[in-house]
Amino acid sequence: MVDGTDDTTVIDTPNEEPTVPAEVDQATESDETAADTATVADSADDDAAESDSERDEDSDDEESDDDDDSDDEESDNPLEVEGEVAADYLEELLDIADLDGDIDTYVENGRAHVSVITESDVLVGADGEVLEALQELSRLAVITETGTRSRLMLDVGGFRERRRKALTELAGDAVEEVKSSGESVRLKPMNPFERKIVHDVVAGAGLTSESEGEEPQRRVVILPAR
């Protein structure tokens, strides 16, 4: 037996990359493009969200600054604060008493003024006695809230304004009586608000006046010219 060797011819072929069908290649490129587009869109959304967040923060800061400025403005004038405190107290009182009325506050002649606009005279009382009591209670509310003594003036239903006009006429008549008679004139007892009105009228007429007696019987005496 003769040993033989198989002459097998081995053909080396160059390493070639597998051929990808054109349809698959185009689909892959399309997917990559879509992914890139989505990434850009996501980035744009993130930038927009961040920008909106910054604007919101800036807006919140501005609102906070405005609130701070508003608080500063509210606390700048102590007399306005007095009026606001008294108005809050009176508003609660009106609710408890089931009374209708609007409340107005303003500052005049170095005093806080609070006016209750109402048709009812329940809060005025006879000769303004209830009104005087409410004024003192309102002042106490201010002292309790601010720790500062208050000289605020309270009016209800325009009572004090009407009283001012009546007292101005009364004081004018008394001044004429003093001038014609040369004698002092003693008026009936009045509260401090009313006495102040009379003193102002007398001083404007060129005469002098003084108060005598103890509360609540304290009164104005108009003196003749010397």
TrEMBL record:
<dbReference type="GO" id="GO:0003723">
    <property type="term" value="F:RNA binding"/>
</dbReference>
<feature type="domain" description="R3H">
    <location>
        <begin position="161"/>
        <end position="226"/>
    </location>
</feature>
<dbReference type="InterPro" id="IPR034079">
    <property type="entry name" value="R3H_KhpB"/>
</dbReference>
<protein>
    <submittedName>
        <fullName>SpoIIIJ-associated protein</fullName>
    </submittedName>
</protein>
<dbReference type="InterPro" id="IPR001374">
    <property type="entry name" value="R3H_dom"/>
</dbReference>
<dbReference type="InterPro" id="IPR038008">
    <property type="entry name" value="Jag_KH"/>
</dbReference>
<feature type="region of interest" description="Disordered">
    <location>
        <begin position="1"/>
        <end position="81"/>
    </location>
</feature>
<dbReference type="InterPro" id="IPR015946">
    <property type="entry name" value="KH_dom-like_a/b"/>
</dbReference>
<dbReference type="InterPro" id="IPR039247">
    <property type="entry name" value="KhpB"/>
</dbReference>
<feature type="compositionally biased region" description="Acidic residues">
    <location>
        <begin position="43"/>
        <end position="81"/>
    </location>
</feature>
<dbReference type="Pfam" id="PF01424">
    <property type="entry name" value="R3H"/>
</dbReference>
<dbReference type="InterPro" id="IPR036867">
    <property type="entry name" value="R3H_dom_sf"/>
</dbReference>
